[in-house]
Write a structure and sequence with these properties.
- The chain is 45% helix and 13% strand.
- With 247 residues, the chain is of the alpha+beta class.
- It is elongated.
- The termini are far apart.
């Protein structure tokens, strides 16, 4: 409920209700952020890969909603700003709408740019761009982890196009996950262990072993690989990992 000490301000997303005595600089920062958010959404709408649409919630307010894999993320720009300016609530107003639930689930996401002149609308811009980037696991808020996991399961396989046993495939699933999580050292440790097992237990040549490693190694930044090779968990890993995979 809003009292008489609140006034309405027209924005690109509709009517924003703010305190009558609000600092003009604070309000201008939020309005500027809303205009930027609207501009980015308009640009994304020109892209076939866009995952955000504008919608109307049951209260008649304009919200942003994802159309990608997994539960829909709903962002309420005006309510987010009103909560901050009227009550000092620094959370983004975000909900997850999953077909398994009758009602949308509120998600706890607190903004990062704290300060009297830091616009909460800037954090909404960051969230929109995060979704457009398919929710990278290491950058997605923990409360939206199920969105990131939905996209992890659709990433292309890094398994080599070579004959593999069930045990090989299980080992590579572990390696795939570590690479997707950008845990480079652990991924290289597992690749080294996989290479040693093939070389010692299966009689693979170094050349054949490297064929199996080529695809996953191409997904690991060269700098991360070089750091690992300077101090490998197992010194013999250098025999298999110290080569440049074909791009």
């Amino acid at each position: 409920m809003y009292c008489s000490c609140v006034r309405s301000v027209s924005t690109v997303f509709g009517c924003l209700r703010v305190p009558k005595d609000i600092d003009r600089e604070v309000l201008d920062a939020e309005l500027k952020g809303l205009n930027l958010l609207h501009s980015i959404l308009w640009q994304l709408n020109q892209d076939e890969a866009n995952v955000w649409v504008m919608d109307i919630n049951p209260s008649g307010r304009l919200i942003l909603r994802t159309t990608d894999k997994g539960p829909a993320v709903e962002v309420d720009p005006l309510s987010t700003i009103e909560n901050r300016l009227n009550w000092g609530n620094e959370h983004l107003v975000v909900h997850l709408r999953d077909p398994e639930f009758h009602e949308p689930q509120e998600v706890c996401i607190i903004r990062h740019r704290l300060g009297p002149h830091c616009a909460v609308s800037d954090d909404m811009v960051s969230l929109i761009l995060l979704g457009q980037s398919r929710w990278p696991f290491n950058e997605t808020p923990p409360t939206l982890e199920m969105k990131a996991l939905a996209f992890l399961s659709t990433k292309p396989s890094l398994q080599p196009p070579l004959p593999m046993s069930v045990l090989d495939r299980e080992h590579f699933e572990t390696i795939n996950t570590l690479i997707l999580l950008e845990d480079w050292r652990s991924a290289l440790e597992e690749l080294g262990a996989y290479a040693r097992r093939g070389f010692v237990c299966k009689g693979w040549t170094v050349e054949l072993t490297r064929e199996y490693l080529e695809r996953p190694l191409s997904m690991i930044p060269p700098g991360a690989r070089q750091r690992y090779l300077r101090n490998p968990t197992e010194p013999t890993d250098r025999n298999f990992l110290e080569f440049a995979p074909v791009e």
